Amino acid sequence: MLSKPVDVLVIGAGIAGASIANQYHRLGVSVCVVDGASGPGQATSAHDGAITHPALGRTASRLHRLALSAYRMVELDCDGAWDHRGVFALAKMGTDLDEKVLQNKLTQLGITSDIGEYISSENAQQRFGIERAGVWFPGAGSINLAGLCKERILSCKGLQTIWSSTIEHLELKGDLWRAFDKNGSCIAKAQTVVLANAFGAQDLLTSFAQKLYLKPVRGQLSIFRIDQQADLLDCIPKINLSGDGYCTPPVWDPETQSHRWLVGSTYDENQNSTQPSAASDAHNRQLALGLLKPQTIDPAKLTVADQFVGVRCVSKDRLPIMGAISGMPNLYVATALGSRGLLWSTLASALIPALSHSSDFALERLARFGLDSESLALLSPARFLAGALASNSKPIFPLGSKAR
Ligand SMILES: Cc1cc2nc3c(=O)[nH]c(=O)nc-3n(C[C@H](O)[C@H](O)[C@H](O)COP(=O)(O)OP(=O)(O)OC[C@H]3O[C@@H](n4cnc5c(N)ncnc54)[C@H](O)[C@@H]3O)c2cc1C
């Protein structure tokens, strides 16, 4: 329990909460992070192989532009934190294999040469040992998400933390929010509360008649064991690969005297079991085969050393939810990061402090990346207000108005 009220209480210490708390701390406001787990990054953010790179979607939609701006933020924020730098995004079979077509697509999508570079299959064979055309994103990479959560919280001197405490409900009294645990004890008071607790955000908002329409999407990553001398090891490029699924480079494990090769993942809608399954490993073996094409490997040689299973929190329209809760003073949410935890948590860490404190630092950071209020309104929880999805009405976005 906190002895004094804080400026900001962040509920949830996954990648969303850790990134947001870190940014508030930089602003110089007093912050407390509370989580039901015994430390940071223990739920869906508990894996050590998250990748991020710009999507090679079909059109330069507003969402694509938003994601690209967020990606530029990630490049900057994660510099020095990547485990393996660079991602090679394999071109889809068909027209994308044509250099001109792919180059045009990159231009259309605003992917400039400093972000992504077309690589022909011959060039890829020479550089990466895989005969496939694609786009090399040198500033992208793979990262230990759980490690990043720890780093973002534990590096903040003076940031307060409360572990193993689940917030059961919130109450606003005067201008202070009070957060209560299951015993009815008030464990923290704060001027501003940020719900960065994935599905838990819905539980806390239900009493305020707010609905976020979240659904679970289970995902399993398989870590295959590759013996040192196996021919298989020669077939695997030593870079992050993304296509149908993704894989990170094999990593030597001195304990087992073998390499660990992470491949994934499944996308099991409306499932929330965190038990590993053999069927998911079989699915990931097929993804591995697809990623290594045109080389052929024997999937039976991919023995499972380990697995990671998590449940992605996904919104009705698959976009993340971040912004102010309408009608609730100084209450914000950052959830539904889906499969793009690193990307959207980085954006949320710039957006939420900008909304709550209108600080020049946070606002300037958003503007620098070309983020305008109209695009960011796409992500506002207000879009779920009755009828908002069915009509053309624009969601409410209170950027610029000092909410405190
Ligand atoms: C198999 C798989 C592969 C993935 N690969 C990638 C990838 O390559 N790249 C990428 O960017 N993303 C990836 N993701 C997505 C990414 O992992 C998630 O988007 C991200 O971890 C979600 O972070 P979060 O902070 O929103 O939620 P979480 O990490 O789940 O954190 C929420 C926290 O809130 C706490 N909490 C909940 N309710 C309460 C409460 N009432 N009181 C106190 N604490 C509470 C929980 O204990 C938890 O610690 C992947 C996901 C899966 C499952």
What can you tell me about this protein's structure?
By secondary structure, this protein is of the alpha+beta class. Helix content is 28%, strand content 27%. The strands form 2 sheets. Strands 3, 4, 5, 6, 11, 12, 13, 14, 15, 16 and 17 form an 11-stranded mixed sheet that branches. Strands 1, 2, 7, 8, 9, 10, 18 and 19 form an 8-stranded mixed sheet that branches. A hairpin with a 5-residue loop joins strand 9 and strand 10. The chain is globular, with a radius of gyration of 22 Å. The relative contact order is 0.17. The site of flavin-adenine dinucleotide (FAD) has 40 residues, from helix 1, strand 3, strand 11, strand 17 and helix 9.
Question: What is the structure about, briefly put?
Answer:
The protein is of the alpha+beta class. The chain has helices at 15-27, 62-77, 99-108, 121-128, 145-154, 200-206, 231-235, 278-292, 341-357, 360-368, 373-376; strands spanning 6-11, 31-34, 50-52, 84-90, 117-119, 134-143, 160-162, 169-173, 176-180, 186-195, 214-227, 240-243, 245-247, 251-253, 258-264, 268-269, 303-315, 321-324, 331-335.
